Prior knowledge:
- This protein is an alpha+beta fold.
- The chain is 22% helix and 28% strand.
- The protein has eleven helices and 37 strands.
Amino acid sequence: MIFPMKIKHLLLILIIFSSFSVEKLQAQDLVRVKLKNFKIVGEEEAFKEAAIHVIKGNILFRRDKEGDYQRAKEHYLKALEYNEEDAALNYQIAVCYLKTSERWKAYEYIEACYILDENIAPDVLYLKACALQYNHKFKKAINDLEEYQESLSPYQLKQKTASIEKRIKECESGIELMKHPVRCFIDNLGEGVNTFQKEYSPVFYLSDSVLYFTSRRENTTGGRKNPENNLYYEDIYRSRYMDGHWNNAEQYGYPLNTRKNDASVDISPEGREICVYRGKKKNGDLFNSQYRDGDWKAFTKMKRINKRKYRESSVSLTRDSMTLYFVSDRPGGQGGQDIWVAHRTEDGSKWKKAENLSEVVNSPYDEETVEISNNGKVLYFSSRGHNTMGGYDVFRTFYNNDGTWTEPENIGYPINTPDNDIFFMLTPDEKYGYYSATRPEGYGDVDIYQVVFLGKERPLSHSGEDDLIACIKAPVSESEIEKPVNIKIIQLSLVKGIVTDAFTGEPIEATVELTDNETGEIVNTVTSYAATGAYTVPLPPGKDYALTAGAPDYFFHSENFVIADTSIHEVIRKDIQLQPMGIGAKIVLNNVFFDTGKATLRPESMTELDRLVDIMNQYPRLKVEISGHTDSQGSESSNQKLSQRRSQSVVDYIVSQGVKTEMIVAKGYGESEPRADNTTKEGRQLNRRVEAKILDK
Length: 697
């Protein structure tokens, strides 16, 4: 997705979220709550308050804007606390949910409405089918859609058959896609990024350590709402990935954010230029800015992409900057928004006339948010057409040598859902995918998620992910019923991550081993997937663990961590970079421990040092320096002596295991080479360490 280019030619993607944030249902009329029937005898005082909520909800509902549907829903829910047995009120709540982000929640209310009065509105069965679809109950949804279709008059059939059959096709696609789920991790980026408001359009600054994204929050610049949808204007936020999680996002000020819509679009790989979208739904424009002297400078309009009267909504440029893919609703397409392609002239000075990408890729429905891979051979995009299971799904198509594109393929469930799955992008190294979706485990609205593809399933083993699969056996018949036994349920935590080459970033098939530091016992051993480098290890909480990872011709990696003694399921991310066995390669021996202020090795250090002994035995010409380091507490002289004694203790143990003395040397550096700030407890802990460095091979 990220690509090198000259500043004056930077053309990146346009984001306008509001165009697809509201479900495109058939037009709904207000179904009135008849207050005389709504009233419960003997509860007149509570009735007055509930009736006010109904009236306020009706006023907001009639405005037909997403933000007002959200507010109307809250009033209706308050009224429902008074009387749950009103069909019209349940119907109104269901419509509000279907018109906003949490569409799967509509089913509870439309089902209640249907039971109370199946004739409450002509489209109640259709809406029930939609709600079933959003809950992955595709077969039941098809039955309701077919029943609804049979109830229509010839005139109604002519008007509604296309939308009904489209939904049936989506449900059929959902059934097939769920038969073959994609093996992947899907992780919410967490509360540092996501809130109960909308977060979307992720783009990365400087590899994948800094995330820019767009959100509609109450603290938007100017504090105003867009009159088109009564949602807060878009602003751009930034979050940094540190210590295994995304930090609390920072809101940018001027000139990045203004009083109107400002949506993150893209950032060049060297971090010198950013593109944003500004304006309204139909007539917004792209602007770009350069990063100089520690800040973004004034924005200028990007005239070459924007075309008057038409909407160009998403852009992705190849790495050589010679081909541009974008989405537009201009004439000449297959229908709705299509993907278009433009090529530069040979001298790179201007763009040739844009062409519709392909009738194979573009459907009669809307396409959105294009993303070209680094090698220019795979195009990712979202579409309402093809074999979507509902809303926008993410698809990919491959470039053929003859200049054509393959039939788009749905990248699969559970990445795609019956709702909108969109803004898919890749990190610069293409290790991870990121996209925006609304999922039940989210924070309440559209969130940003990370996807790690695991590849094809491996044979079953007794470790790793397979430990999470329970064996199903035939039930045993019992003639007596035993007394109940209290069972303490231990909820396993998961340690997972990616193992890669520290220099090339390529995935590595490595052995990952977890050891209980207290007992020295190996708790679990797994192998990361060769295609992706991904691994998963389930672990019980309440222990101090040593993690090591190794692969042939690589220096091993080690670290230690504690999982708190809690029943709460925890997911711990540990990405690992292995250094090839070459001169200068260096590792921190994180599982070598000493008593405070002493140079005596503690027993739990031996497992780590034995691994180093094994490596030195495998490479008899290896020469390794064992270096000791301290923090800055105490005198410089005493720190130097302590570091030398500790490194010598390590060397003495290794030599005692049969390694030749000429292969290893001890050197103390004291406090002279800190890794972190000595003014903090955490920094001092990082500075107190023992390292192994290859001097010769």
